[in-house]
Amino acid sequence: MNLFLADFSDHSQQAVLQHQEAYHCVRVLRMKPGDKLHITNGKGYCAEGILRTATQSECLIDISGKIEQASLNPYYLHIAIALPKSADRMEWFVEKSVELGIDEITPLICSRSERKKYNHDRLVKTAVSAMKQSLRAYLPVIHPATSFNEFVKISHSMLKTICTQSGETGFEKFAAENSNVLAMIGPEGDFTIEELSQAIGSGFQPVHLGQARLRTETAGLYICSSMKSLVH
């Protein structure tokens, strides 16, 4: 089944595919008016529709089936993750974390970050592709890159953790006891002592992810898996 990201609300009778979605529908899959397709708005709603008009820049869809709302995760997870050295590794993390149902991702720029630039549009496209491939109806928020100093000053109404090898408590303990979690993951070489002190002063709980030293993107996936398996 092919799933498309479309613009519609829970009471719409029609939906619109634009830009890459329309191009993929018309030029790649060669769909034509009268063909059936499945759509999601990325905000939890799914429906079946019939292609009414089709161009490679915009497609109009008549919603033919009931608009259904997908179930939410029993938890909310926001990961602020330092940009890895390789852009491919960041895209890999976004792809896999979306498949596992992450809610928000913030690329983080830390003191020891070796890369401080990235392609935001490419990450969003990666997230859309992963959402459709895994047949999910929720598209996570991909925030612009934010410096560590700015991020720790933002008010967050959830449990705040910072992952570090020096943490005395395992992340699983918090994942089992809290349904809304923010986790900060540092770059290769970990956070600096000053960053850890600043985060703790801002209410972040230092936690570890076990004895093994994990790559940045692997640590992010570890947290996604922990929340999925421990929170119910």
Describe the structure.
The chain is of the alpha/beta class and 232 residues long. It folds into two domains: 3-69, Ribosomal Protein L25, Chain P (Beta Barrel); 76-230, Alpha/beta knot, CATH 3.40.1280.10. The protein contains seven helices and 14 strands. Strands 7, 8, 9, 10, 11, 12, 13 and 14 form an eight-stranded parallel beta sheet that branches. Strands 1, 2, 3, 4, 5 and 6 form a six-stranded mixed beta sheet that branches. α2 runs parallel beside α3 (120-133). It is elongated, with a radius of gyration of 20 Å. It starts with a strand and ends with a helix.
What is the structure about, briefly put?
With 232 residues, the chain is an alpha/beta fold. 31% of the residues lie in helices and 28% in strands. It has helices at residues 19-28, 87-99, 120-133, 148-151, 171-177, 193-201, 216-230, and strands at 3-5, 14-18, 36-40, 45-54, 58-63, 68-69, 76-82, 104-109, 141-142, 146-147, 159-163, 169-170, 180-185, 205-208.
